[in-house]
């Protein structure tokens, strides 16, 4: 007797469910993702997840065809922040929920962290609506030490510069830098330059699903205005850095955990964020001080720490594979 394969015990007439599909959002100049994220495609495939890179502003992409969307190599979001947030709000099943992206892509979020008692870099905020004169800007800059000027929406030190408060030429350049940003309708941040950046560097702590995953230190130096020519969306966005694996102190981990809690308080929709990166420096008093906190940062140094890629891929898989989510 011939047995119909469709009715065989192996299949019992049922079709195996397709693997969940996940889009790893990237930018047009990195359509195949960057080196930090590209290995995720292979690792996710091994976990039973079909992951593909997709350019976030490509109008031909059908985002509703994916079970989940993860913001990854989107290095060009800052110059188009409003467009980027609107895109996130239109995408179903985006794991970096849009309200969190709206809150986190504008550095006013530092005010919320500071109000919650988290040590952050002291910041003077300049509002373009005030139409500040050169003299008014001058009087708002520090009288001593080095200081930094940057816009509230930026990535990777773009349009950021370091200046000397007691050097007339440097101070003049700082005023010109601030005026240019304000003339473009951009809020400006004025911060003291933290000396520990030149010695210990920045400690960058990465959390996956709310748990500490790994950390690195980054050594880089700001020297003056950092204005790109605008020809390429990512040109000049990121300065050359020296990256080393790092074991953070309990105090640094505690500051980063508290930042995640504040995010959850300010954006209840976020639940447990898929990932977060906290950049810290040592303050003048030796206290770990938050420089930035991000839930959309493209570079999580996944290739720099053993097991980080697998942990991150596992967190994504747990959110889309039946029976694996909390």
UniProtKB/TrEMBL annotation:
Keywords: ATP-binding, Nucleotide-binding
Source superkingdom: Bacteria
InterPro entries: ATP-grasp, DcsG_Biosynth_Enzyme
PROSITE patterns: ATP_GRASP
N-terminal signal peptide: none
Keyword NADP: no
Residue span(s) of domain ATP-grasp: 110-326
Entry annotated with the keyword ATP-binding: yes
Cited PANTHER family: GLUTATHIONE SYNTHETASE, PTHR39217
Protein name per its UniProtKB record: ATP-grasp domain-containing protein
Organism the protein comes from: Paraoerskovia sediminicola
